[in-house]
Amino acid sequence: MRTGGQLIVESLEANGVERIFCVPGESYLAVLDALHDSPIETIVCRQEGGAAMMADCHGRLTGRPGICFVTRGPGATNASAGIHIARQDSIPLILFIGQVASHAKEREAFQEIDYRAFYGPIVKWATEIEDAARIPEIVTRAFSVATSGRPGPVVISLPEDMLTSMADAPSALPFTPVETWPGDAELAELEKLLAGASRPIAILGGTRWSEAAVANFQRISETWSLPVGVQFRRQMLFDHLHQNYVGDVGIGINPKLSAYIKQSDLVLLVGGRFGEMPSSDYTLLKSPYPDQKLVHVHPDSSELGRVYRPTLAINASPSAFAEAFATRKPTNTQVWAEQTKELHENYLEWSTPPETGPGAVQMGPIITYLASVLPEDAILTNGAGNYATWVHRFHRFRGYGTQGAPASGSMGYGTPAAVAAKALYPDRMVVAFAGDGCFMMNGQEFATAVQYALPIIVIIVNNGIYGTIRMHQEREYPGRVVATNLNNPDFAALARAYGGHGETVEKTADFAPAFERARDSGKPGIIEIRLDPEAITPTRTMTDIREKR
């Protein structure tokens, strides 16, 4: 006989969980008590949104569900920001929510919410455990649901009295991963389509990749001389300096790459849904009938044909597909090999940072410097904002497991993601990028980094505005500024107040020594870059946008 709280923890242990992220609450004290005697590491966070984003980043980098615990009501609603990211980005995550006791349900008791109704539209499965004896069954099922097909979040509500009740339940067994393999007929048809193509391209996205899968697809690209692009914020799926890499297919796409995709006669889309952002609002591939022949590889059959009608649909995970197709070889020399070379050269030109711009701080030389000092396995995280352009366009990712960034476009992600990444890989350098607005949304998780001695470096690009919104505002309503100015703290002083290391950069030459001091301090660090708001994009100033130049 064990309590429901003990059964929850035992089920997590059985499924290989080594770390959870939480904000404590009285609604699940029985689980916290069981964690006291468990080898599972418990990281306590400062806000439930940050905790859920940490769980998301853990799932993003490992492919195994990130685990988050929050309390009822406000705790559960705060966590929804991270759950929405996991849904849109196809990340495996399990959120456990303490719930009111059974006798009080459906009375709008203190902090009561119907979590099936609240979370149902944005998760793969929302449920409530009413009988503690069923905990091993339901928790193991949650792992299966979160990881199979198109991965995503699962929410489990835990009534307080259920967690303290005693139950005779079987010992939990780990879930059985479900792989979806391509058939020989589909692979043979893909070979025929490639043999008849003159302007093909492969675009990689989604999840259910691995280091081995990325290596297998690199071999595929070499065997077939395929040009390879990656979807928005999936840059870690292909080595950017590989001769066949052609660029990021996302916001602000290279116009030369955009033109090539539109004129392509065969698109091999592997793993991704190719939604609004990577498709440039469904113009690169027209929905529902693309101009190009489309081979869509996806682990969830319900995604195949949902937005685009494919010429060939292959229901397989990216890992299984890459392993299977890596053994196939063309029968003749590929006519597009020179095009692939030209596209890679276009990418190198497009991804070379500019050296000049308005103001005393130039972001181009800073990005160039970081490229020279960051190890190839450094993990970069960020949220959303114009500052992120400097990372996504100009940083050249080299390997799998080096990026934590929300394709959903959520602000506030970078700092909590960096905490999770450093907890997962303590020997690797982890650098978070944030705007001043972005940082203030979950910047309190810097305190979590200090508490657990996780020496992340947070680079805050501070221009005193909500930059992306101001950019759109100036374009649509020139000179009519409302609700986009920000009054910020001294971020370097804030870092020191938390117990970390703080630096302020007011001219370009200050950055390199500031970074070195932050890196060598052994503490979590914040480097505040005070950027002129005129430097709103790498190529256009705020005045250019306002005056429509």
Give the helix/strand layout.
Layout: E1 2-3, H1 4-14, E2 19-22, H2 29-36, E3 41-44, H3 48-62, E4 66-70, H4 74-89, E5 93-99, H5 115-119, E6 125-128, H6 135-147, E7 153-159, H7 160-164, E8 166-167, H8 184-195, E9 200-204, H9 211-224, E10 228-231, E11 245-249, H10 255-263, E12 266-270, E13 293-298, E14 312-315, H11 318-325, H12 337-350, H13 363-373, E15 379-382, H14 388-394, E16 403-404, H15 414-424, E17 430-435, H16 436-442, H17 446-451, E18 457-462, H18 467-476, H19 491-498, E19 501-505, H20 511-520, E20 525-530, H21 542-546
Parallel strand pairs: 2-3, 2-4, 4-5, 5-7, 6-7, 9-10, 9-12, 10-11, 12-13, 13-14, 15-16, 15-17, 17-18, 18-20, 19-20
Antiparallel strand pairs: 1-8
Explain the overall architecture.
By secondary structure, this protein is α/β, with parallel strands linked by helices. The protein folds into three domains: 2-167, Thiamin diphosphate (ThDP)-binding fold, Pyr/PP domains (Rossmann fold, 3-Layer(aba) Sandwich), CATH 3.40.50.970; 184-349, TPP-binding domain (Rossmann fold), CATH 3.40.50.1220; 352-546, 3-Layer(aba) Sandwich (Rossmann fold), CATH 3.40.50.970. The chain contains 21 helices and 20 strands. The protein has a six-stranded parallel beta sheet, sandwiched between helices. The longest helix has 16 residues, at 74-89. The protein starts with a strand and ends with a helix.
